[in-house]
Design a protein that fits this description.
Strand content: 15-25%
Distance between the termini: 14 Å
Helix content: 40-55%
Number of domains: 1
Number of helices: 5
Structural class: alpha/beta
Radius of gyration: 13 Å
Oligomer: single chain
Amino acid sequence: MAKKILIVEDDEFLRQLVSQKLSSEGFAVSLAVDGPDGIEKTKSVMPDLILLDLLLPTIDGFEVLSKIKSDSATSSIPVIILSNLGQQEEIDRGLKLGAIDYLVKAQLTPEEIVAKVKTSLK
């Protein structure tokens, strides 16, 4: 059965690009465009992994991560932060909140993002 990936990303171009790459690798991809949508889809889809942007409308990715990790139903789902915020402070905060990895968008190709997802699910 295909592993389920939830992408929480407000940038439509990037959301579609990463989604297409993951789909072509056999993953079942769900999409969320903002924080509340991301939290809702996490509960309804119960993905095997979440790719989470930090700069989101309504509530930011840190808040989303915090809510996912504080809910016993979703706390064990691995979350990879995928953001343009690359300061050590943000990285440390994300990892402290429970993310398993922190990727800076500008430093990675979509192929490298897919490779990270595959490695994280092994």
